[in-house]
């Protein structure tokens, strides 16, 4: 028994040593970035110190080295604190100074691991307009690039499917809640009580867990995030270039943003070249409140150019503020100290009546009277008609979403 306890303690010590070595390596890369002396050669030397051998031994690959680079960059960015728009050019210069990622792995392709460039992440945070009371979620966190420059928030939740990246997240964000499920399954796998007020996301574009190649992977993640977000919350998403109001996508686009407001839609042509890809992306700022879902699209080549013209939209009032009055009640006709009551809406010219008998707005015709029973029946007809319309619309959306997301 003593031998078993000794063996268990030895395994625990080895794990702690490995974790400490990884933490030291991340801190070394972060320091090199801060001192503007990180090169590909220096990065590989750090990997050799971490593993005690070169990549020729097969213990680590160049892709592992680039993952360490991203973790070190995340740690460096957290030291910058909250950022403002004027910081974007210097962060873009920092991105250009880093080694270009020229090697991909099977896992990177399978999990679509193309981390958000630091300058794009900074612009996303500025567009998000985070609050200290926010509950923030990043559903496909990677190394946490989208949340590294956040100010202090109430809660931070990071979800990442890849185990090795989750290990680095635990070292980088010690106060965050870390989970590891498919981001497209947020509504069913995330904690039921989690209702984020702010979601920052860069989902996989063309592959999903269990489906393999999936052209709608990003859309599944976005819809899950919108469903999970609290009413009035904000979602800032980096989406594929094809997700727009084209003839092919218009129906899916409108269904996705039903009861949402797209505050900003911007196209970026060249921002991922340091990650080893030339893909164009769209930056979208979405509020979970009804409104216009088709704003004018801003198109720029680089994040630096977009930052000069992108204006952050104010976040809407919290739930419960600015609530619409009940059906049949118009507050503008009620005087101080009077209680509004329902009126018959079936007659032309009918106006509001206050509880003390005073009439609001124009006078009612004296020769036509509406009794209490007529008022009640009119209100019941309005409520029933509204409920039927809502149920028909919801059923139609559910049927079309089932058709869209039925597996191949």
- Report strand %: 5-15%
Largest sheet: 8 strands, mixed
Provide the domain count.
2
List unreliable stretches of 5+ residues.
1-17, 317-370
Total E-strand runs? 10
Q: Give the CATH architecture of the largest domain.
A: 3-Layer(aba) Sandwich
Neighbour order of strands in the largest sheet: 3-2-1-4-7-9-8-10
In round numbers, the mean pLDDT is 77
Q: Can you give the helix content as a percent range?
A: 25-40%
The rounded Rg comes to: 27 Å
Instruction: Give the number of helices.
Output: 12
Provide the structure class. Answer: alpha/beta
CATH superfamily descriptor of the largest domain = Vaccinia Virus protein VP39
The rounded distance between the terminal residues' Cα atoms is 54 Å
Q: What is the third-level CATH name, the topology of the largest domain?
A: Rossmann fold
Shape: globular
CATH C-level class of the largest domain is Alpha Beta
Q: What series of H and E elements makes up the topology?
A: HHHHHHEEHEHEEEHEHEEEHH
């Amino acid at each position: 028994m003593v031998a078993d306890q000794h063996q268990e303690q030895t395994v625990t010590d080895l794990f702690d040593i490995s974790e400490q070595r990884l933490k030291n390596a991340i801190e070394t890369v972060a320091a090199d970035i801060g001192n503007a002396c990180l090169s590909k050669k220096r990065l590989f030397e750090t990997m050799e110190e971490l593993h005690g051998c070169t990549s020729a031994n097969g213990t680590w690959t160049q892709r592992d080295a680039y993952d360490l680079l991203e973790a070190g960059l995340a740690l460096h960015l957290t030291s910058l604190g909250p950022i403002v728009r004027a910081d974007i050019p210097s962060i873009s210069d920092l991105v250009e100074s880093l080694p270009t990622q020229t090697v991909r792995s099977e896992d990177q392709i399978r999990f679509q691991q193309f981390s958000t460039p630091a300058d794009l992440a900074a612009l996303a945070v500025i567009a998000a307009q985070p609050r200290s009371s926010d509950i923030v979620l990043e559903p496909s966190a990677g190394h946490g690039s989208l949340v590294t420059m956040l100010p202090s928030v109430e809660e931070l939740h990071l979800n990442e499917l890849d185990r090795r990246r989750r290990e680095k997240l635990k070292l980088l964000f010690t106060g965050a809640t870390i989970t590891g499920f498919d981001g497209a399954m947020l509504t069913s796998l995330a904690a039921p009580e989690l209702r984020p007020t702010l979601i920052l996301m860069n989902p996989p574009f063309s592959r999903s867990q269990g489906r393999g190649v999936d052209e709608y992977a990003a859309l599944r993640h976005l819809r899950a995030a919108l469903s999970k977000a609290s009413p009035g919350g904000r979602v800032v998403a980096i989406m594929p270039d094809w997700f727009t109001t084209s003839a092919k996508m218009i129906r899916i686009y409108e269904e996705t943003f039903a009861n949402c407001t797209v505050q900003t839609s911007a196209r970026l042509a060249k921002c991922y070249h340091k990650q080893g890809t030339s893909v164009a992306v769209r930056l979208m700022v979405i509020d979970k409140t009804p409104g216009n879902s088709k704003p004018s699209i801003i198109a720029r080549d680089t994040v630096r150019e977009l930052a000069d013209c992108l204006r952050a939209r104010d976040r809407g009032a919290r739930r419960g503020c600015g609530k619409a009055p009940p059906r049949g009640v118009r507050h503008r006709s009620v005087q101080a100290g009077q209680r509004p009551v329902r009126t018959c809406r079936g007659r032309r010219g009918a106006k509001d009546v206050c509880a003390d008998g005073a009439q609001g707005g124009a006078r009612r015709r004296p020769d036509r009277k509406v009794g209490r029973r007529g008022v009640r029946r009119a209100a019941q007809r309005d409520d029933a008609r509204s409920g039927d319309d809502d149920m028909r619309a919801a059923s139609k959306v559910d049927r079309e979403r089932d058709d869209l997301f039925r597996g191949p």
